[in-house]
Specification:
This protein is α/β, with parallel strands linked by helices. The chain has helices at about 10-20, 25-40, 45-60, 80-85, 105-120, 135-150, 175-190, 215-225, 240-255, 270-285; strands at about 95, 130, 155-165, 195-200, 230, 260-265. It has a domain at about 135-265: 3-Layer(aba) Sandwich (Rossmann fold). About 35% of the residues are buried.
């Protein structure tokens, strides 16, 4: 299960209307998303990466028995409801639902589990649902530590980064704790002596979001005398616009404006480490 992205610039307005559930789309949202998609030629890298990831997971899981693997997006094709319709599940007694997010979140769980349950109910289907809400910290550390070691320059300030979440519905304590734990475990496995953590992409609605902001953390990094910064977007599993735009362009630009060098690790994407980890977690729920 994934968020989903439009495949053409012309689809951005329809994509935003779906996100805002028919409510008027704020002007800033249209402007910012249009700028983001224009930067990558109108096509997010997410779709191709997720499609490849799903194919690799399907191929690996099919070796151990008959397991159907399908992709259902929340905000673009293939929509979750469409995916349920295309799946032959009349004789299926269990579904393992796995949103592609690294940390457990009450808000994320509800936004994917509720539509799944409604889609099944509309078809009078009642299989057991096993919901995987986040990836264990030690598993994430095994995935991310090699990426940190590969990209680390001597003297880097290493900043672990995750997407901020609003706190008006859920406290998101589990999400915050998982972010801190995964960052700590990865830093230890990568042999770092010091590291920093911060949240990116705070929205423009609501007064309370998970903190600290990466911009606030940048001030602390500067005060400690660092001259280069390695961003580690451990709160993401694959490349997409919020990394390319919010992190690399906006935040990276600010880092450079402050006189520091900026670079970041790659993402797990559809690499073997993430494929293998997802398959193990799914099989734990199947067996």
């Amino acid at each position: 299960m994934a968020y989903g992205s439009p495949t053409r610039m012309e689809d951005v307005p329809a994509y935003l209307q779906g996100i805002y559930e028919g409510k008027p789309v704020p002007e800033y949202a249209t402007r910012e998303n249009t700028e983001k998609y224009a930067m990558v030629g109108g096509i997010s890298p997410s779709n191709a990466i997720v499609d490849s990831l799903v194919r690799k997971i399907s191929a690996k899981l099919s070796q151990g028995g008959e397991i159907d693997v399908i992709l259902g997006n929340k905000h673009w094709s293939p929509w979750l409801d469409q995916s349920i319709s295309s799946l032959s599940i009349s004789n299926t007694d269990k579904i393992v639902a796995f949103p592609l997010f690294p940390f457990p979140s009450g808000g994320v769980k509800g936004s994917y589990l509720d539509p799944l349950e409604k889609a099944l109910s509309r078809r009078n289907l009642n299989p057991e649902i096993r919901f995987i809400n986040g990836i264990p910290s030690d598993v994430l550390a095994d995935i991310w530590a090699p990426l940190v070691r590969k990209n680390y320059w001597k003297g880097d300030a290493v900043l672990f980064d995750a997407h901020s979440l609003p706190l008006f519905r859920e406290k998101e304590d589990d999400y915050n704790a998982a972010f801190m734990s995964a960052s700590r475990s990865t830093a230890e496995e990568a042999g770092l002596q010091e590291y920093f953590v911060g949240y990116q992409s705070r929205g423009k609605y609501g007064n309370r979001w998970l903190e600290p902001s990466i911009y606030e953390v940048l001030e602390n990094i500067m005060a400690k005398g660092y001259r280069s910064l390695l961003a580690v977007p451990i709160g993401f599993l694959y490349e997409h616009l919020e990394i390319l735009y919010d992190l690399d362009l906006e935040f990276g630009g600010k880092v450079k404006e402050m006189g520091m060098d900026y670079h970041r690790t790659g993402l797990p994407d559809d690499g073997d480490s993430l494929v293998d980890s997802v398959c193990r977690l799914v099989m734990n729920e199947v067996s």
